[in-house]
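> call design_seq(struct)
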């Protein structure tokens, strides 16, 4: 997704720099759309407690994040510029770029919220599992303290009768 403009292209095309910016913004939009979709799938995998699907999704998300970082690095040269002085081929192209930026900013916020919820959900699941493990460990210690293992405790429960 590298978008590069050579010096000779910039000399021949007065709008080359803004077209480069537009291409980078559009690449960012596509990557964020994919990340947003993967974040939704991640939440579903967490809800289903499907660890293998979750790991596959996280790997795909990492690849998307790596590509997004490359695009962001390519956009650094535009940060110091005054947006009002940029020369666009037409006003519609500029508005389209502004709309892509607005959409990207919105999606970034949505992705951050989904990531926070995913983290909270995974933490809650971890805490629930830890609680179950502690209860199980406590039961085993209690059984050992009374000198029986789980199978003899189970047999003792079966031998109790409420019939008389």
């Amino acid at each position: 997704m590298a978008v590069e403009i050579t010096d000779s292209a910039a000399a021949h095309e007065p709008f080359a720099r803004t077209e480069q910016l537009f291409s980078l913004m559009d690449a960012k939009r596509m990557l964020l759309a994919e990340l947003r979709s993967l974040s939704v799938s991640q939440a579903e995998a967490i809800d289903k407690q499907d660890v293998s699907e979750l790991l596959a999704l996280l790997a795909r998300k990492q690849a998307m994040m790596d590509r997004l970082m490359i695009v962001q690095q390519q956009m650094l040269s535009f940060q110091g510029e005054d947006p009002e002085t940029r020369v666009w081929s037409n006003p519609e192209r500029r508005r389209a770029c502004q709309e892509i930026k607005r959409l990207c900013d919105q999606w970034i916020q949505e992705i951050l919220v989904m990531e926070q919820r995913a983290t909270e959900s995974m933490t809650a699941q971890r805490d629930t599992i830890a609680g179950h493990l502690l209860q199980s460990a406590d039961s085993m210690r209690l059984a050992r303290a009374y000198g029986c293992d789980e199978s003899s405790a189970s047999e003792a429960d079966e031998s109790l009768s409420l019939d008389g």
